[in-house]
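Quiz preparation item.
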C-alpha cells in the first residue's frame, strides 16, 4: 500500500500556473462587469424609450385638446362676428371686451395652461357673447320697423326724384324749343363771282381768271321771338382745296362759335328788327382763283345761318 503511493507523481504548484489562474479570474470578472454594464444600458434604453413614448402620447393629447379648445373659441367668435356684422355700430364697446377675452384664451392655449382654467374662460366668453346676441335679437324688431319705415321713405324720395327729373327734362325740352324757335335762319343765300369792267360795270362770270370779286347776299328770316338789335354776320369762302379765303391768320380775322374758333373771309354788321333783313358783302381777293367748287358758309355770333356754293372754270 505504501509502495503504491510512493510510485505516483506528486503535483507541484509553479509560479506560471498561479499567473494563469489569476488572469482567468480577471477575464471572468471583466466579462461579468461588461455584461452588467450592457444590462444596465439596455434597461436604461428601454426605460428612456418608454418615457419618450409616454411624453409623445401626452403631447399628442395636449395638442388635441388645444385644437379642440381653439375650434370651440373660433366657433364662439364666428357666431358673435355674424351678429356683430349686422349691429356693428351698437357693439363697439362690447367688441373690445370680447376680443380681449378671446386674446387671453389664445394666450393660455399657447402657453398650455391648465385645461380647466381655459374651459372656464371659454364658458365665460360664451355667456358674454350669448348675452349680446340676446340683446341684439331684442333690438332686431325695432330695427326691422325702422327699416320698413326707411324703405317707405326711400320709395317716397324716389317718386319725388322721378317727378323732379321729369320736370327738369320738360324744362330742358321747353328751353330747347325756345332756343330753336329764337334761332336766326337765312334763306336765298347766293354767291356770285363778278367781273368788273370799265367804269365799274359789273357782270357775272364763271371763269376763274376773269373773277375780280365775289358777292355774297342772303336774307335773314324774320322771327318774332328772336332778340333784335345789331348783329354781326360772318362769311367763310372755302376754295376747291378747302382753304378759307382770308386777309390773314391773325386772331382779329377769326370768330368763336360754340367751342370752335374759325377764320372768316369777311364780316359785316346789320340791324335786325325781327323781320326779313337782306345782307350783302363783297370779297375783293388779290389772289388768283382756282378752278373748281367753292363752298360758302354764313354765320352770326350765335348761329350757323346756312350755306351755298358756286363753281369756277
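Solution:
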Amino acid at each position: 500500500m505504501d509502495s503504491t503511493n510512493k510510485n505516483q507523481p506528486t503535483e507541484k504548484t509553479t509560479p506560471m500556473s498561479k499567473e494563469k489562474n489569476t488572469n482567468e479570474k480577471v477575464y471572468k470578472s471583466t466579462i461579468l462587469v461588461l455584461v452588467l454594464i450592457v444590462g444596465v444600458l439596455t434597461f436604461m434604453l428601454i426605460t428612456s424609450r418608454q418615457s419618450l413614448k409616454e411624453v409623445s402620447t401626452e403631447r399628442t393629447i395636449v395638442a388635441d385638446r388645444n385644437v379642440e379648445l381653439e375650434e370651440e373659441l373660433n366657433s364662439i367668435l364666428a357666431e358673435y362676428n355674424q351678429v356683430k356684422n349686422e349691429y356693428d355700430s351698437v357693439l363697439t364697446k362690447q367688441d373690445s371686451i370680447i376680443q380681449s377675452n378671446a386674446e387671453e384664451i389664445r394666450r393660455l392655449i399657447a402657453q398650455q395652461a391648465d385645461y380647466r382654467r381655459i374651459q372656464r374662460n371659454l364658458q365665460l366668453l360664451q355667456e358674454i357673447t350669448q348675452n349680446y346676441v340676446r340683446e341684439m335679437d331684442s333690438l332686431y324688431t325695432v330695427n326691422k320697423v325702422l327699416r320698413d319705415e326707411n324703405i317707405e321713405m326711400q320709395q317716397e324720395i324716389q317718386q319725388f326724384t322721378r317727378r323732379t327729373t321729369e320736370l327738369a327734362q320738360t324744362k330742358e325740352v321747353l328751353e330747347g324749343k325756345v332756343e330753336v324757335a329764337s334761332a336766326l335762319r337765312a334763306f336765298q343765300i347766293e354767291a356770285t363771282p363778278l367781273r368788273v369792267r370799265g367804269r365799274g360795270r359789273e357782270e357775272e362770270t364763271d371763269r376763274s381768271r376773269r373773277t375780280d370779286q365775289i358777292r355774297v347776299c342772303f336774307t335773314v328770316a324774320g322771327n318774332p321771338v328772336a332778340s333784335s338789335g345789331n348783329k354781326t354776320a360772318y362769311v367763310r369762302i372755302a376754295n376747291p382745296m378747302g382753304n378759307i379765303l382770308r386777309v390773314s391768320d391773325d386772331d382779329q380775322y377769326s370768330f368763336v362759335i360754340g367751342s370752335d374758333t374759325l377764320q372768316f373771309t369777311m364780316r359785316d354788321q346789320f340791324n335786325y328788327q325781327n323781320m326779313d333783313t337782306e345782307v350783302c358783302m363783297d370779297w375783293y381777293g388779290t389772289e388768283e382763283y382756282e378752278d373748281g367748287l367753292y363752298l360758302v358758309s354764313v354765320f352770326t355770333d350765335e348761329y350757323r345761318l346756312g350755306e351755298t356754293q358756286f363753281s369756277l372754270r
